[in-house]
Design a protein that fits this description.
about 35% helix; six-stranded parallel β-sheet; single chain; 18 strands; alpha/beta; Rossmann fold; about 450 residues
């Protein structure tokens, strides 16, 4: 491999990903596809704990020696200290460590469940890296300020001031998202905004007034995501849940939705809520579904799409909620097709996070890109990304907002989002990544 000769010198980047799935896969694929001279070695996104423990030994054998490597870029799942000890030739490279998350503050259900080794591995990796990159300021600061407390778990001979050694290497480069063109999937009210002022969201804000037409989405998409088709207003529209996705309560039933305009106050289309996160406890599905059940029990109209990837252990609440929510469910489960995924996001009105852990939140930003109104905890990374009007402090506040939106969904559909997505796009960030991964060849290589 000869690499790519550019104005900055030979660019040859060794990409290593020990957990090649989700946002980790997205980033590696993006870098490999967009930057010349990259070669990728990876392990499937399974058994995360074993990847963190043993991946270095695998890559010691899997990565062939090469004189063309100049930069090693890897996520913090890999124990970089172990790899460079096992492969001194790789230790000579410019080593860039990228943190999608950090194990020092990663939530565990019980504190005794926290495995010291994972956080310890990440501290060691930072010490041997040349540059340490975090996807958010929250991720960086939560890691650096937790090192001393974390090391107090050691019974004795605790190292001191490691954060002072690591901080000068650190910088924030947000996760780069390649936002697709979703204009063909957008309903009309998300396409033609006009800015006015309203106070009906509970505070003074700018919102969008839109056309009073029904969303013009193709019949195929309507069948998939439950959007009203472009038909005369007096006709009723039926959306059928397929037997494979229906619960025992709604098997074979047809969910009837009104065909009136989104903005007909007498009979609006029900609020469409989407939850696009991993089906794991750190996303707090228990709180989310508790609120959904409260909406249903009060007879408030809404439709729900629960997306996101599943892994080995799926919390029981998902199967319970699928049965309990019955015909309110429009879609249930991971959508491997990106087009289908973005179609659902474009059809939805509100995207919700109840996460106990979030260091960036790609799914939330993708949903906002598709015109969804975001509701996020006033904690974690969210205040760094979203304006205050989209943040809630307690589940009760979230419930009250959704209660209002279910009663008057036109409020959400007329709102122009104040959340910016462009700063997190590949178009905005690619220059920083190119600079990060381009270097002059070292004399000792």
């Amino acid at each position: 491999m000869t690499g790519d000769r550019t104005a900055a010198g030979i660019m040859s980047v060794l990409l290593i990903e020990a957990f090649y799935g989700g946002s980790h896969k997205q980033l590696m694929d993006l870098l490999k596809g967009e930057l010349e001279g990259c070669v990728l070695y990876s392990l499937p996104a399974k058994k995360w704990h074993w990847r963190a423990r043993t991946a270095a030994l695998h890559f010691m054998q899997a990565v062939p020696p090469s004189d063309s490597y100049r930069v090693l870029f890897t996520s913090a799942v890999l124990n970089l200290a172990e790899l460079v000890a096992l492969r001194p030739d790789l230790g000579k490279l410019r080593k860039v460590l990228y943190f999608h998350e950090n194990q020092l503050v990663y939530p565990v259900r019980k504190n005794q469940d926290r495995d010291f080794q994972y956080g310890y591995n990440q501290i060691l990796s930072c010490l041997v890296a040349d540059i340490v990159v975090f996807n958010s300021a929250f991720n960086m600061e939560s890691f650096l300020t937790s090192i001393s407390k974390f090391l107090k778990l050691m019974p004795d001979h605790r190292p001191k001031n490691l954060h002072q050694l690591i901080r000068p290497k650190c910088r924030v480069i947000h996760f780069p998202i390649r936002f697709p063109d979703v204009s063909r999937f957008l309903p009309e009210h998300k396409k033609t905004p006009q800015k006015i002022t309203m106070d009906r969201l509970g505070h003074h804000t700018d919102v969008d007034v839109t056309s009073l037409q029904n969303p013009k989405i193709s019949p195929a998409i309507c069948d998939q995501i439950g959007e009203p088709k472009a038909q005369p207003r007096k006709e009723s529209i039926g959306i059928t849940i397929s037997p494979s996705e229906s619960s025992p309560e709604d098997d074979g039933q047809v969910i009837s939705e009104p065909s009136s305009s989104d903005f007909n106050t007498e009979s609006p289309r029900p609020l469409h809520i989407v939850w696009p996160h991993r089906w794991e406890h750190d996303k707090d599905p228990e709180t989310f579904f508790k609120i959904m059940m409260k909406l249903k029990d009060q007879g408030l109209p809404f439709r729900l799409s629960v997306l996101g990837e599943t892994f080995t252990d799926v919390p029981e609440i998902f199967s319970q909620a699928r049965i309990s929510l019955g015909s309110a469910v429009l879609h249930w489960g991971f959508l491997p097709s990106k087009d289908e995924y973005f179609q659902v996001l474009c059809a939805a009105d509100v995207v919700i996070s109840t996460a106990k852990h979030e260091f960036f939140g790609v799914a939330m930003l993708e949903a906002v890109h598709c015109g969804c109104y975001p509701l996020c905890p006033k904690a974690l990374v969210y205040p760094e990304i979203f304006p205050a009007e989209y943040l809630y402090s307690t589940p009760e506040q979230l419930w009250k907002k959704l209660q209002n939106f279910c009663k008057r969904p036109g409020i959400v559909r007329r709102h122009r989002s104040q959340a910016e997505t462009s700063p997190y796009s590949w178009a905005s960030l690619n220059g920083e990544f190119r600079s990060l991964l381009t270097t002059e060849p070292r004399e000792d290589l």
